[in-house]
Amino acid sequence: MSEKNDGANRDATKRSARERLQEERLRQKTRDKRRRTLVVSAAVVGVLGLAAVVGLIAANAGSGDKSEKAGPAVAPSGAVGKDALAIRTGKDAAKSQLTVWEDFRCPACKAFETNYRDTIHELEAKGLLKVDYHIITLIDGNMSGTGSLKSANAAACAQDAGKFPAYHDVLFENQPEETVDAYGKNAKLLELAGKVDGLDTPAFRSCVEDGTHNSWVGKSYDAFKAGKFRGTPTVLLDGKDIFGDQADPLTPQKLKQKVEAASGAVGASGAPKASGKPSASASASPSAKAKGSGSGSTSGSGSTSGTLSGTSGTAGTSGTGASTGSTGSRAVSQGAGED
Questions:
Q1: Residue 42: helix, strand or coil by DSSP?
Q2: How many CB atoms lie within 10 A of CB 16?
Q3: Model's pTM, two decimal places?
Q4: How far apart are CA 126 and CA 268, in angstroms?
Q5: Quick check: helix, strand or coil at residue 174?
Q6: How far is the first Cα of the chain from the last one, in angstroms, to the nearest whole number?
Q7: Radius of gyration over alpha carbons of the chain, in Å?
Q8: For residue range 19-44, what is the model confidence (pLDDT) as tens digits?
Q9: What backbone phi and psi angles, to 5 degrees, belong to 319?
């Protein structure tokens, strides 16, 4: 009997040991499963936390440089025209209105400004002409970059400060190469503001750095495309395109004659209207008039001989060579800007 009992006790002891081992393995599996669950949960929380941080950084990074389409369109002070998309210079009462679509990165626009700036300013000072400037971003689309957008916004900020005409001219005078996006850097635009007395203020700097008028610039470009204009500069006098006529190229002298004629300052033939005091052009010598090209100009042979060349010319020059250079440059932008 004792041997049988001993065998039964050993079997019971073996079963008990196996059961304890199985129970320990089960407990270990449970602990391993719990550990894996905790590790996976921690990893998910970490990923979500990282995503939140990245999103916050991205949001903060974009807050100082609004895109062209971001936010409502904030028009600059005194903007005029449909949807307030134009910045006007000159007197509102002026009889003639010049509408100019420009891009501060556009070389042909610079050529136009170089050749016509003095004439335009002269006519504005006389109260004969007002100019509505529409600033767009054609070159950013063609050449990439943000210089067109940021310089246009900066010009609108200058309008807020009452300094648009001077800053407009400074931007064209210092225009970088078309392929160099120097105006894409706010620091450059702020540096050039130092050339205009009283413009570089905290308010102007904030406006430039925040991109206050970016969406307004975007709306201006949308209007340009909707108007199906072919390129920049597009120049309209009282609604008529006077700059794109290759058969009758515009010159500063012709622009002056058209504006003066509309105001009654000259007769229909282009001769100065009779007055008690002869004008400077009317007193030109007969020989000087005889050497003209017959375009109706009376300013002497130098301005109408058509022998001048180059794309920029001299400001105020009315020779057809300078006009052709400007028009030729414009054709390049036209080809790139067609829809």
A1: helix
A2: 10
A3: 0.63
A4: 20
A5: coil
A6: 109
A7: 36
A8: 766 777 777 777 777 766 665 555 54
A9: -65, 150
